[in-house]
Specification:
With 423 residues, the protein is an alpha+beta fold. It has two domains: 347 residues, Outer membrane efflux proteins (OEP) (Up-down Bundle); 69 residues. It has nine helices and four strands; from the N terminus they run αααββααααββαα. A four-stranded antiparallel β-sheet has the order 1-2-3-4, with no helix packed on it. Helix 2 packs across helix 4 and helix 3 packs antiparallel against helix 4. The two termini are 56 Å apart.
């Protein structure tokens, strides 16, 4: 009798013993840093930014001057430079010059492109951080669920062994043996499914790190929820200050304003300054020396607004300003909708985590302990033991699932506002 009691106490201890946390050889922050370093998308955007910066010099400086070489009034009967006094050798230099201030206005517009691309880079980094966190929490939960399933399998194997022992002394029915085997088969099937999820989540995480899909990555167990106080007004304010996507829209609007200023210069003329020097030789027939000539010319285009093409540029920039203002408001509208949904979900998950960790899970453990004790003395049926064991498995798995959903929801919120919401 004492040996049987000791055996059952051993089973109960195994049922309620907790798994120790894994050593964290590679922290989440390290994974994020590595993903940012190797991201092809970020490298592409960096190249795009560099190209935008190079484009500033290309389009905001004076065009190259033009050198002109020529022969003037050369007689075709002799092709002699000393026959006619009008004949000369000419060299000229001309320089196109935009209206004062136009190049500076163009430079201001082009500089905005580099700033806009930088916001694209920052938003892409936030997206990578969110993707890594989502994959990390999926992997962590899959491993936790697998550990819980393995523990449940061990418990069922011990329970099955007890049932077989009781069956040999006619204290358990064959139906009890079949039920135990069915539950074992079901949990083995679940373990196989969870192993697949672990492999899939690991592969996804490794893909962001550009490494072999089977490369092992250590994860920590999902800890209890550390409640973060959030409200929609603060989230809205934080997003306006930190979300690169919103700042990028504002920069696009600013660029349109600068484009309007640049378009205004279309109403002013551009200039072309040129100087020419003509060298003449002494006339052979009269032995008369000739003076050389120098000419100065200023040309300018006439900014005639044919077909309204110049005013259309101004109108286009104003329309773009309105478009980006509306886009900004639309983005805020979508964000506020997402904030409301996320906060509702987070509040729900907080409450459910509290109910499961403080109520359902401990109650399920106590129910299993009671069912085992009653089954030992023949006060309850074996099916109650299996139901209690399954309840422990379901509530513990659900507890980790709730935590996983909470941390993924928080990571999504951090992406939306462009800033970490935890200290």
């Amino acid at each position: 009798m004492k040996s049987k009691l000791f055996f059952f106490l051993l089973i109960i201890y195994a049922m309620f013993s907790n798994y120790s946390a894994q050593e964290n050889n590679e922290t989440l922050q390290t994974l994020i840093q590595k993903a940012v370093e190797v991201s092809p998308k970020l490298k592409m955007l960096e190249a795009k930014k560099n190209a935008s910066e190079a484009r500033v010099s290309v389009n905001s400086n004076l065009p190259d001057p033009t050198l002109t070489l020529g022969l003037m009034n050369l007689p075709t009967n002799s092709f002699s430079f000393t026959q006619e006094p009008m004949t000369g050798k000419m060299i000229g230099l001309s320089q196109a010059v935009p209206y004062p201030g136009k190049l500076g206005a163009a430079e201001n517009v082009l500089n905005k492109d580099a700033e806009i691309t930088q916001e694209e880079i920052d938003d892409a980094k936030n997206e990578i951080i969110n993707n890594i966190k989502q994959a990390y929490y999926d992997l962590s939960f899959a491993r936790s669920a697998l550990g819980i399933a393995e523990k449940s399998k061990s418990n069922l194997e011990r329970i099955s062994a007890v049932v077989r022992t009781k069956y040999t002394v006619s204290e358990a029915s064959q139906q009890n043996l079949i039920q135990a085997d069915v539950e074992l088969t079901k949990i083995k099937d679940k373990i196989a499914e969870l192993k697949g999820k672990v492999s899939s989540s690991l592969s996804t995480l490794n893909s962001y790190l550009l490494q072999n899909r089977e490369t092992q990555i250590e994860t920590e167990n999902l800890s209890a929820i550390n409640s973060v106080v959030l409200n929609i007004n603060e989230l809205n304010k934080t997003a306006k200050q930190n979300r690169p996507f919103l700042k990028g829209i504002e920069l696009e609007k600013n660029k349109s304003e600068l484009m309007e200023n640049l378009a205004d210069y279309e109403y002013y003329p551009n200039f072309n300054f040129s100087v020419q020097y003509s060298q003449r030789d002494k006339i052979t027939a009269t032995n008369t020396p000739l003076n050389d000539f120098v000419s100065f010319v200023v040309g300018l285009n006439l900014p005639i607004n044919y077909g309204g093409k110049k005013s259309a540029k101004v109108q286009e920039s104003r329309i773009m300003q309105k478009m980006y203002a509306n886009q900004y408001d639309a983005a805020l509208q979508v964000l506020n909708k997402n904030f409301g949904e996320a906060l509702s979900k987070i509040d729900e998950l907080k409450e459910r985590e509290k109910l499961n960790s403080e109520g359902l899970f401990p109650q399920a453990q106590q129910s299993l302990k009671s069912a085992m004790a009653n089954y030992q003395v023949g006060k309850t049926d074996f099916i109650n033991v299996l139901d209690a064991q399954n309840k422990v498995y379901e509530t513990e798995t659900n507890l980790y699932k709730i935590r996983m959903q909470y941390y993924k929801q928080l990571a999504q919120l951090e992406f939306l506002v462009g800033k970490s919401l935890t200290k």
